Amino acid sequence: MSFTIGKLAQLTGFTTTLIRVWERRFGFLQPERLDNGHRRYAVEDLSVLMNIRALLEQGLRIGDIARMGREELVRSDASAPSPRIIDAELASAVEDDYLDGRHPAIAWSILEALPCAVLVTDKRGRVRWANHGVAVLCGYELAELHGSRPGSMLQGPGTDRQAVEQLRAAIVSHRPCSVPILNYHKSGEPYLALVEVAPLGIGANHVGFVGTARKLEHGLAAPRKAKR
Fold first, then answer.
1. Where along the chain do its domains lie?
2. Do 8 and 42 meet the contact criterion of CB atoms below 8 Å apart?
3. Does 156 have pLDDT greater than 70?
4. pTM of the model
5. 114-215, what's its fold?
6. Which CATH class is domain 2-106?
7. C-alpha to C-alpha distance for 52 and 76, rounded to whole angstroms
């Protein structure tokens, strides 16, 4: 059995962008390259990603996981059930199941397709997932942001402390918030963004936060470039 990168993304919850970044940076995926240039991933590659997801959920950082190496990640039993016995029906989920919401990856695909930056964090505000729009807006890939708090990466000398406090208060009280804030691109260039944050789940069911950001073209008053 082999998988396209799109199917691999559906089965693991990782975006195709992140899978490509990890493949290039860490080398723990070994797809077969077809004559037409397309990649095909083996069951072992699926095992690696499923185990990586389980280890990330246990609090490990991707750099530490990568140092385990492909062979160890294939053998690891960190995920359950084992990807080696994944139902063949899941691997061939039909389009109807996907588009009417019955496929578990549909929500992530919707977030990936949105024309804005989307971040998902855990209850402590640490980044767990980002769509491609994040890299477009601020220059950072998920592999760089994962496990960090967005403010530590995106805020800089010109960021308004009042805006930061508004976001912090909303997060502490688990309520939605919308605030314009000056953030900084990976290159150090400032940009004004409208950041909107909402809690995921209520009360005992609270699991984290989702935040969106889009660039505002007006209102930027020549702030300092941040040193990176």
1. 2-106, 114-215
2. no
3. yes
4. 0.56
5. Beta-Lactamase (3.30.450)
6. mainly alpha
7. 9
